[in-house]
Automatic annotation (TrEMBL):
InterPro entries: Cellulose_deg_GH3, Fn3-like, GH, Glyco_hydro_3_C, Glyco_hydro_3_C_sf, Glyco_hydro_3_N, Glyco_hydro_3_N_sf, Ig-like_fold. This is Glycosyl hydrolase. SMART domains: Fn3_like (SM01217). Residues 698-765 form the Fibronectin type III-like domain.
Length: 781
């Protein structure tokens, strides 16, 4: 490994233009190489629920992990660390050096559209799981990149909105997980698109202090893709690498700024030194070797599903008895959403549905019941892709597996991207055919032009532009048994994004589908209903404007519960949704976009092969009117965090409103009695007993409170947690260490207020049966 003296010597071998060239990407997903110092290009890849690799290509599949919300629900650092090792193995398999994960932003409100990429609403839980993730990935010789630094909790106007947040809340809530990741040795950090307190994050003084100066971060600050929008202001900040490249506001303009004395060359040298340090750590610099990653243990994916599944309620129906006839209801039972939408999306190496997993165990009957998304979907069949030049000359051609073409070969002289396929018509009626993209879009059916539109480029958001552009639909009557040729074209322009050919068959009668589902529920022993959100609701680049499930899913669940009292509802979403039928369902289980082993893992839980191990990482509301933090939409470009320290369960406790389910809530297949707690300096000892008939695992949570504090504090805050396991009737003691930071507040420095804190212990933020008052004070160190 090169030490800093050797790295500085390498920096000194380069002239100014060579150094500046290294500070922008060499391409969309790679940094620049520099043979003069033995530096190869480093490859970056999106995460966090898998390693997609550079670019999007359905022929290059990836292991799909449960979403980070699911990992948050595990409250299991050891499991998250092992999953980090699995990601490192995947990264090395794909030639990836830097994984752009984990996401350490918080679930500030339930309306955040990208919360499925974040662990939780609590800074301590997020910190501990983020540390485990970073250490797991980097133990395999791959850089982890905590993101998006900082206060990036809203997707609306995400490129430009300015978060106004007080110093205490910034330090104690939003910066805390990043500080923990830096202390754990993170090799890179990603700066966000948004601004904080008047400074765009790529120009923010926070990149210098506290990140580099106070915390001693010696890694590389890489920008979110396209987030560097200035030359001098960003270059004099702590921003080190501008991605993607080679275009951007640095390059020749940065060279000129240095020569004009606007940017110190020493600042450039420090950035290059950090780049070389990262390269040495991942094995991209001569004389360094990459750490061999652990073997990929794919069984972890199934284990993680049951470990993250949160059982909200259960009248005793779960686990299911063998031999039951089950009605499996809902479109999500056959096409389970395994991941969230946006840049973290990948092509799973495998997928299994809950219907198939249950059918392997018992007799099942399936009925979708409702349709929750009437949008056409990309053609799921082999297609021919051609890149055409002048006079339709074929410059490139390849066969692809789907009609969603996010990237293809870049060819000089390219003017048109063409996608063609043969569609076998399975049902007579009006088919909805569509083309998505920007620029001029056309669609021909058997040589007849049925669509010819121009879609102007109306956004700067790369997620929308490249992953979710508008689509234009036309209805075409088709006859069952026919095979028609579809040819979609998109004229290529500057930065025109992706293109897709989409199709949707004529839907059956909605009334008949609904009735069939209710009938199936009535005729079976048990009904399992799968409800979910869609990528039009939870996705990068957009926030949610309602917490209600889309379509008629709530109505369907109500009708099925009325038809069969033994109804289990599986909720598949990345964040909270309203559950108006929750008291009528026999059981409610949360799935959290469970990755490629979702069907098998959930079946394990339903039949009791595994215990539902998850606990809520986010408080779930009973109604939208009760949500205490509603401000998620910027006004005139500004988003004030008026609630200060009180987000999530803290805000609920402050408001006095009762949520549907508190942060930390979750049931297993046994019961627990919290018997006693005592404090020994920085450890809370909690004695509890398994009072059920099965072995079980419990997440023991300790909260602090101080109503008489000299400074404003939340009504209660999570100070520590641990897990215990015990057999039926067995007593066990949980040892929960309370870090000094838990009793400290930010006042220009970290200050531990003298005196006593109330200690609360229990299974969730709203249920703490053990309470130690002032006479049992938690003593400062």
């Amino acid at each position: 490994m090169h030490d800093d003296h050797e790295l500085a010597r390498l920096v000194g071998k380069l002239d100014l233009p060579a150094k500046v060239r290294l500070l922008a990407g060499g391409s969309v997903w790679q940094s620049c190489a520099e043979p003069a110092v033995g530096l190869r290009a480093m490859t970056f890849s999106d995460g966090p629920a898998g390693v997609r690799g550079p670019g999007w290509d359905e022929r290059r599949t990836s292991l799909a992990l449960p979403s980070p919300s699911a990992l948050g629900a595990t409250w299991d650092e050891e499991l998250v660390g092992r999953l980090g090792g699995l990601l490192a193995a995947e990264a090395r398999r794909k030639g990836v050096d830097v994984l752009l994960a984990p996401v350490l932003n918080l679930h500030r409100t339930p309306y955040g559209g990208r919360h499925f990429e974040c662990f939780s609403e609590d800074p301590l839980l997020t910190s501990r799981l983020g540390v485990a993730y970073v250490r797991g990935v980097q133990a395999g010789g791959v850089a982890a990149t905590p993101k998006h630094f900082v206060a990036n909790e809203t997707e609306t106007d995400r490129l430009t909105h300015d978060v106004e947040v007080g110093e205490r809340a910034l330090r104690e809530v939003y910066l805390a997980p990043f500080e923990a990741a830096v202390e754990a040795g993170a090799w890179a950090v990603m700066s966000a698109y948004n601004a904080v307190n008047g400074h765009s994050m790529s120009e923010s003084p926070l990149l210098t202090s506290p990140l580099k100066d106070e915390w001693g971060f010696d890694g590389l600050v890489v920008s979110d893709w396209g987030a560097v929008r200035s030359t001098t202001a960003s270059a004099v900040s702590g921003q080190d690498l501008s991605m993607p490249g080679p275009w951007g506001p640095w390059g020749d303009r940065l060279v000129a700024a240095v020569e004009a004395g606007e940017v110190p060359e020493a600042a450039v040298d420090d950035k290059v030194l950090r780049l070389l340090r990262l390269a040495a750590r991942v094995g991209a610099l001569d004389g360094t070797g990459a750490v061999a990653p652990p073997a990929a243990d794919e069984s972890l994916l199934r284990e993680a599903v049951s470990a993250s599944a949160v059982l909200l309620g259960n009248n005793g129906i779960l686990p299911l008895a063998p031999g039951l006839r089950i009605a499996v209801i809902g479109p999500g039972a056959t096409e389970m959403r395994v991941q969230g939408g946006g840049s973290s999306g990948l092509y799973p190496a495998a997928e299994n549905s809950l219907l198939d997993a249950l059918a392997e165990r018992t007799e099942v009957v399936h009925a979708p019941g409702v349709r929750i998304d009437d949008r056409p979907t990309p053609v799921d069949a082999p297609v021919l892709v051609r890149v055409l030049g002048a006079d339709d000359a074929v410059l490139f051609r390849e066969h692809r597996l789907t009609g969603r073409i996010l990237e293809t070969e870049e060819v000089p002289g390219a003017e048109v991207l063409e996608i063609s396929t043969g569609l076998r018509v399975t049902r007579t009626g009006p088919w909805r055919l569509a083309v998505a993209g920007y620029g001029r879009l056309t669609l021909d059916v058997d040589g007849v032009r049925v669509l010819d539109v121009v879609q102007p480029l109306d956004t700067d958001d790369p997620a929308v532009k490249h992953l979710r552009p508008p689509h234009h639909v036309v209805e075409v009557p088709l006859t069952e048994g026919a095979e028609v040729e579809l040819v979609a074209r998109r004229e290529l322009g500057e930065d025109s994004g992706m293109a897709s050919m989409l199709a949707a068959d004529p839907p059956p009668s909605a009334r008949d589908e609904f009735a069939a589902a209710v009938r199936a529920a009535r005729e079976c022993d048990v009904a399992v209903v799968v409800v979910s959100t869609t990528d039009a609701i939870e996705s990068e680049g957009r926030d949610r404007h309602t917490l209600a499930l889309p379509g008629e899913q709530d109505t369907l669940v109500g009708a099925v519960c009325a038809a069969n009292p033994n109804t289990v509802v599986v909720v598949n979403s990345g964040g909270p949704v309203l559950l108006p039928w929750r008291e009528r369902a026999a059981a409610v289980l949360l799935a959290w976009f469970p990755g490629q082993e979702g069907g098998n893992g959930l079946a394990d839980v339903l039949f009791g092969d595994s215990e539902p191990g998850g606990r809520l990482p986010t408080t779930w509301p009973d109604s939208e009117t009760d949500v205490p933090v509603k401000d998620f939409l910027p006004v005139a470009g500004t988003l004030p965090y008026r609630e200060g320290l009180d987000i999530g369960y803290r805000a609920w406790a402050a408001s006095g409103a009762e949520p549907a389910y508190w942060f930390g809530h979750g049931l297993g297949y046994t019961t627990w009695d919290y018997e006693e707690a005592r404090v020994e300096r920085d450890v809370v000892r909690v004695r509890l007993r398994n009072t059920g008939e099965r072995p079980g695992r419990e997440v023991v949570q300790v909260y602090l409170s101080r109503p008489d504090s000299a400074v404003a504090r939340p009504p209660r805050w999570l100070a520590g947690f641990t897990t215990v396991t015990a057999g039926p009737g067995e007593q066990v003691e949980a040892l929960v260490r309370i870090p000094r930071r838990a009793i400290s507040h930010w006042a220009g420095e970290w200050v531990a207020e003298p005196g006593a804190f109330t200690v609360l212990a229990g299974p969730n933020a709203g249920d703490t049966p053990l309470r130690l008052e002032r006479e049992n004070a938690l003593l400062p160190w």
